[in-house]
Structure formats: structure tokens, C-alpha cells
Write a structure and sequence with these properties.
Blueprint lengths: L1 H13 L10 E5 L16 H10 L3 E8 L5 E3 L4 E3 L3 E2 L5 H5 L12 H8 L6 E6 L6 H15 L6 E5 L2 H10 L4 E6 L8 H7 L3 E5 H6 L3 H7 L3 E5 L4 H10 L3 E4 L2 H4 L2
Parallel strand pairs: 1-2, 1-11, 2-6, 6-7, 7-8, 8-9, 9-10, 10-11
Antiparallel strand pairs: 2-3, 4-5
Helix pairs in contact: 1-10, 2-4, 5-6
Length: 258
């Protein structure tokens, strides 16, 4: 009850920041793959992306891993089949042979971006999954090369939970838009530090915002986009609107989409 009361108090205090501003945009998490009551397709697949495009989602998030033979595949979890198949421990051909529960293949990055380019109005959010050593540098190098080849710099954001990963993105390509993810109460980067790094946005979950409500306006004043996750109910949507977030990230677009 205390948490709910605090959320409502923050929303009431910040409502004035959004009443005269634009509504938040909605970002589909891993594509559009659930109605809110049932899963309808495999997440992070071309089918999930196409469904998001058909729904008119304003953004779509997806995750990238590097295979054992240095190919980029779209997958949230490293483990694909326990004890048998994983993104980092398997070859691209082995991964492509795997059939997901709804009958789809795990796509590669080129396939995803080529499909995404058909709806240039939909922003794509490429999350770089954590990898050891220099593997993340290779993901960044390959991803940037493909984004530039397809002329999609204006359509793609890169995301990571690691600030050093985003620093590397900006080292390789200073024009790329990047967003810092965080669900940590104690290690979330404050607005001035985000600005110092040159990051374009922050994607913080509600627990972070509850502890730092004053950050919302500070980010706005610094021109840094704000993403709230996860927003999977009308109740959370209203809070995100009242707080003035730029984006709402959801698994349930059918519930909170405009």
C-alpha cells in the first residue's frame, strides 16, 4: 500500500509536466507477441516484428547476441535449449536449424533490419546483450556497419545495461543514439552524469523512479529521452503519462497502445 501511495503522490506532483506536452510513445518489448492474456507468437522473431508493424507501434525493442562463429542473431536469452544449444556456444547454422514453439526461426540482424526498414516511422531499439571480453565491441562494429549500409542511422537506437558498452558505441560512431537501461536502485546513473557521457536516453524501471522522482524533470530539461518499463496496465500507463515520460515500454501493446 505504501508503494501505491508513493506512486500516486509522485504522479500527482508531476502531472503538470505532461498536461501540455505530447503523450508518450509506445515501445513494443521484443516485438508484438502477446495480447496481455495470452502469448500469440515467438518473441524476437520476424513474425513478432511484423505484428508490431501491422499494429502501428511507434517503437520496437529487440536483443542481439553474437554466435560462436561471430554472427549476429536476435534473441533475449543466451540459452536456447538447455544443455544443447546457446547463442554464444553454438554456430549460426545450428541456431538456424532450431524451431521455436510457434514454428519460427531465430532471425539474424540483417533480416530484422531489412524488415524494419519497411516502416521507417517505427524506431528500432537494439539492445546489446552482455558478452565477455571484446565480443561486445564486435557486436557494435558489425551492427553499426549494417545500420549504415541500410541507411538506418535515423531509425535505430542502441541500448545496454552497461554504460561502458554505450561509451564504446559512441567511440565507434558518435552520431548513434544510445540509451542506458537500469533496474538498480543503487547504480542508476543520475541526469548530469548521463549528459556527461553523451547518452541520448535512459530506460529506468518504476523502482528506480520511485526512489528518484526528481530526476524526471532533470532529464527533460537536459533533453534526454526517458523510457519507463514495464508498463503493462492502464494504471501504469496513466502514471507514465502523468510523469511525462517520452516512451512507455510494454509487453502488452493491445492493452496500453493508443
Amino acid at each position: 500500500m505504501k508503494k501505491i501511495a508513493l506512486i500516486l503522490a509522485i504522479a500527482a506532483a508531476c502531472a503538470c509536466t505532461s498536461q501540455n506536452g505530447p503523450r508518450p510513445k509506445v515501445l513494443c518489448h521484443r516485438g508484438h507477441c502477446t495480447t496481455g492474456t495470452e502469448v500469440t507468437t515467438d518473441e524476437n522473431t520476424l513474425d513478432a516484428l511484423i505484428r508490431a508493424q501491422e499494429k502501428g507501434c511507434e517503437g520496437c525493442e529487440f536483443d542481439v547476441y553474437l554466435t560462436r562463429d561471430s554472427q549476429l542473431v536476435i534473441r533475449h536469452d543466451n540459452v536456447i535449449e538447455k544443455g544443447k544449444l546457446s547463442c554464444t556456444g553454438s554456430t549460426y547454422d545450428e541456431i538456424r536449424a532450431h524451431v521455436l514453439p510457434f514454428g519460427h526461426q531465430i532471425p539474424n540482424l540483417r533480416e530484422w533490419l531489412e524488415q524494419a526498414k519497411k516502416t521507417p516511422e517505427m524506431t528500432q531499439f537494439l539492445e546489446i546483450k552482455a558478452h565477455p571480453g571484446d565480443q561486445e565491441k564486435e557486436i557494435i562494429r558489425q551492427s553499426l556497419a549494417l545500420i549504415k549500409e541500410l541507411d538506418m542511422m535515423d531509425q535505430v537506437y542502441m541500448l545496454s545495461f552497461k554504460s561502458e558498452t554505450l561509451d564504446e558505441v559512441l567511440r565507434q560512431e558518435p552520431r548513434m543514439r544510445v540509451g542506458l537501461n537500469s533496474s538498480s536502485l543503487h547504480n542508476s546513473m543520475p541526469p548530469q552524469e548521463v549528459k556527461k557521457h553523451g547518452f541520448t536516453g535512459v530506460s529506468y524501471n518504476m523502482s528506480v523512479i520511485l526512489n528518484h522522482p526528481e530526476w524526471i524533470k532533470e532529464f527533460q530539461d537536459l533533453g534526454i529521452e526517458t523510457f519507463l518499463w514495464m508498463v503493462d496496465s492502464e494504471y501504469m500507463k496513466k502514471i507514465g503519462e502523468d510523469l511525462g515520460f517520452t516512451w512507455l515500454t510494454t509487453d502488452f501493446y493491445d492493452v496500453i497502445g493508443y
